[in-house]
């Protein structure tokens, strides 16, 4: 093998699959040149703004826009009457009004939109709209909503012989738990730019998780055929589920089409909190029955999720909550009932973990309670009952693929606990507030483990399309990858480039921008995109490779099977020697191929029993939290988060770590501080002053143990990694707080008043 | 009103500035520098952090008129031409950038920290960056990046 070939081969694969390749958009993002959806400007453009309901439930008695239209600089004011197509939209069910007509059903519901030549003029115009409401009593209690029949969906799962399991159970422990309404709180607010096109269509540059499903809804509302609505992915400032539903989309397009001018819309933080769906608040009742030797005999669960005013993704969020309500364990019998209801609270929908966060919190909280009742160690109890390959889920499906639950927990157990540090006020609960010298600070340790399905469950026919071109231009060999996969920060652009490098042996890969001109890539959600679009890119590359090697084989008179692509050339597969330059192989023109990847088929679940092979794949993560709690003041400092996760083959190890650290932080936030406070249907804290997310002072070091068990069904053996860390992080922190204080702490986020001064309520026998 | 100030070493004049406009608005909409981000407009998130006469501030909390005659340095002014500042390089290299919306503000704040404290301890880094929210990373890679950039700058200074 010549040294030249060796060098070129190494260079061609250095940033391929398995490397921590840098983000292709990294340089633009650190120099301020990356164009987010809020950065787009056009000559002659206008600014859009939205009038929102101050009431959670009211009749709209009068909506007079004429004073707003009279304000100089205002170009259009539109209401629900001006929507030319469908007046409602929705991913699953079209029931959410583009602009409310007649009635408003939640605080912050859009009522009218304005376009003006300065954003402040647009805001002033909103105040000039005469909107008169007749307030109605809001339905805000989900139990009352359920009793009133205001049901979105009831999911019912029956597994095993529950009556026999109850007979066998020697210890029964039930608990009621609550999860507050968490917000995605992505940093880049909803925004976009709509540009009217000469053919009467519109081009919308917008933040999104799934361009094609957005286009379907936008076109329907505009009364336009889909081919005249083009969506282009603008820079996305985080998503976490909060961009699965439409935000500015239809409004900006309506204003652009009405005024004939480009219209930009960009929410402020308050409007962002009102303008997207949240994580469903949940009330959970979990019951475990077990034998004295610490075997789980059964689980029953009743889950009630508040879906708010419109459907959004509630029907599938509740299903996902139910699928995993028995936890990552061998559970021979289960009865699970999940309900999600309509209320006049803010609409809830997708957020990282998608229902499994709430049920994981419930079941993992009750597991610690079961351990206490059995006098067992919480970690041992989990390991003893850990799910494994072949475990039958409550839905009847046998777990396949890697399922190293016990191993993940053992990894956590093997990790030394963090030492107690010498006194430093910065390391105390309350931090530089100098709240304590440590006299009332107790340390606690808590564990939790979670399981979630990867990809879409329940019989969804899901696919992704990618197109790959191999060419030689002035800069040498280049692969161009085109897909509509939404880059939200997670790194799918990096993943696509790495796969093309590995498959085509070229160093230079351009991942083109995502738009609806490309095939449908499906959503950047359900931790599916690396698997699905990764599979599509790999398939397209394989087709390109076959054709270029075919050409080379004809030119060289060698069988194609003896050739490979590497180092930007055609090489002999056995020696790696360059056989033909790519330029010569492509003399007949560049080669393009498209591939649609589909995962294995799944089925829906039976409506009566919940039985069905509903899932594509499973992913697992576990956390151990170590906390210091000031029991007098209720202040908490998380000392360390340790996590263990099976990530399958890591396409980009650095990006995988980033997903796990970020997901862990969001779970810590839900445990300790993050909640949309809603009172009588009104949102009380739509700001970063009042809705707290973890700062760098709140986040402890995250210690990580990763397993890389290749998934047998996926491209390269990858598995989804983004969501699992957001499941077990929250209950691990809550269990650590319970361990430190002896308090029940049934609700997250745990607030200082749940702890402070409650020492007398501490259960006997705890420290 | 008219505002005259220096941005990244270039004298700028912004005309027709409304009295209520923030420095952030003027930078983004009138000077054509959208790198500083608007994520909360009330000084809670730090995404709009810029240097004002050498001190990091939230540009959303500075009235445009307060910048009159002063020097502003934004994320667009950290690199030396095409050569990235070590803190920018380290952010990309360490995986401190995901969605990147918080990145411009974090870069300015971290740049200032390393200027003031050449080899900051972890508690010093955490304290300095406590006003900059990041939703994607959990901050671990940001800490890595600041440590790396500080080490490289210290090395280069020796």
From TrEMBL, chain B:
Under the heading InterPro entries, the entry gives: 2Fe-2S-bd, 2Fe-2S-bd_dom_sf, 2Fe-2S_ferredoxin-like_sf, 2Fe-2S_ferredoxin-type, 2Fe2S_fd_BS, Beta-grasp_dom_sf, Diverse_Oxidoreductases
Query: A Gene Ontology molecular-function term?
Result: 2 iron, 2 sulfur cluster binding
Q: Which UniProt keywords apply?
A: 2Fe-2S, Iron, Iron-sulfur, Metal-binding, Oxidoreductase
Which segments constitute the 2Fe-2S ferredoxin-type domain? 1-78
Oxidoreductase: is it a keyword of this entry? yes
**CDD domains documented for this protein:** fer2
Checking PROSITE patterns in the record gives: 2FE2S_FER_1, 2FE2S_FER_2
**What is the name of the protein in this document?**
(2Fe-2S)-binding protein
Q: Which species does the entry assign this protein to?
A: Bailinhaonella thermotolerans
